[in-house]
Specification:
It contains 8 helices and 8 strands. By secondary structure, it is an alpha/beta fold. It has 2 domains: 151 residues, GTP cyclohydrolase I, C-terminal domain/NADPH-dependent 7-cyano-7-deazaguanine reductase, N-terminal domain (GTP Cyclohydrolase I, domain 2), CATH 3.30.1130.10; 47 residues, GTP cyclohydrolase I, N-terminal domain (GTP Cyclohydrolase I, Chain A, domain 1, Orthogonal Bundle). It has a 6-stranded mixed beta sheet with strand order 1-8-7-4-3-6. It has a two-stranded antiparallel ribbon with strand order 2-5. The longest helix is centred in the N-terminal third of the chain and has 18 residues. The radius of gyration is 20 Å and the shape is globular. The chain starts with a strand and ends with a helix. Bound molecules: zinc ion. The site of zinc ion has 6 residues, from loops.
Length: 235
């Protein structure tokens, strides 16, 4: 499988990147992005979920009608409502901080101070430039600073950040930052290996490419630790 590695270094120093001077096409085709935080408006949660679903339903009906589709057709007529429900109740639930997983930590009684690796966490997200799926695997590791996290919570953190319009680099950083915060350690490594349908089904239509992003901090900046992690996940 042909893969391209994307470096995150440009973002580490500078939390916000200006894309001024790039056209909308260039931003979308290069999947350039501006910030580690998902850009949200101040009034993002003024509307209730029900109101949001009603609006999305109307707008999506408008898109389908503009495309010339007959919304009286039995197969199509429920689509705007289904899309609205899917956006709010399923695929974009990670936009709402209220849905952020509550993390309980346990005392590390066994004094296990080696790396813990959780690999092959499957995720489904959506590209914020095209609103089509990004999916793949997340592999992550951390070294306990005295507390340990329930394994299912690692998975939940990944799913929370996946359920937003995303850019793979930001997704990688958001998982890393959250784990560093809740685990109270800098010793975190993340690899995201993903397929972007906006690359494979449109645009350059490259069905074989995958995109790998990585983030290493703390002890994982040492080559030996990094190699140990890569060895466990077999990449
Ligand atoms: Zn895209």
């Amino acid at each position: 499988m042909k893969q391209k590695e994307i470096t995150l270094n440009t973002l580490l120093d500078d939390n916000r990147v200006s894309l001024a001077g790039l056209s909308a096409e260039e931003i979308g085709d290069e999947h350039a992005f501006t910030s580690i935080d998902t850009p949200m408006r101040e009034d993002a949660f003024v509307l209730s979920e029900k109101e949001k679903m009603q609006r999305i339903e109307q707008h999506f009906r408008g898109i389908m009608e503009t495309l010339g589709l007959d919304l009286n057709d039995d197969s199509l007529k429920g689509t705007p409502e289904r899309v609205a429900k899917m956006y709010i109740k399923e695929i974009f639930t990670g936009l709402d901080p209220a849905n952020k997983p509550k993390i309980a930590l346990f005392e590390n009684k066994y004094k296990y101070n080696q790396m813990l690796v959780e690999k092959d966490i499957t995720f489904y997200s959506n590209c914020e430039h095209h609103f089509v799926p990004i999916f793949g695997k997340v592999h992550l590791a951390y070294i306990s600073s005295g507390k340990v996290i329930g394994l299912s919570k690692l998975n939940r953190v990944v799913q929370y950040f996946a359920k937003r319009p995303q850019v793979q680099e930001r997704f990688t950083m958001q998982i890393a930052n959250e784990l560093k915060k809740v685990l109270n350690t800098e010793d975190v490594a993340i690899i995201v290996d993903a397929k972007h349908l906006c690359v494979s089904s449109r645009g350059v239509q490259d069905d074989n490419s995958a995109t790998v992003t990585s983030y290493y901090s703390g002890a994982f900046e040492q080559e030996a630790r990094r190699q140990e992690f890569l060895h466990y996940i077999n990449l």
